[in-house]
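ok trying this again, last paste got cut off
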Amino acid sequence: MTSGEVLILNDGNLDETVQNHPLVVVDCWAEWCGPCKMIAPIIEELAKEYAGKVTFGKLNIDENMGVAMKYRINAIPTMLIFKNSKLSGQIVGALPKAHIKQKIEEHI
């Protein structure tokens, strides 16, 4: 289960994280991305709200091109939703917290 902390993910630990947690939301971002910085506090809040239900992680796509290429991430922020080790959804763009929650709820 998760503690409400946001994990730092990378090319090396993403697959293991997805396999070890039933529901994972990965925030794909970059340091230069203004909209990514706008949703960062929302990701932190959601990690606390969904502690024990959803694992949240952040993955810098500039430092982890393998993940970006594998999942064809063309725009950021992009959130990848993995359920039972499989990619089951994506949220693209800096959307309001309520919209992000709605998308996550569809997978719980």
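PB: full thing came through this time. The chain is about 35% helix and 30% strand.
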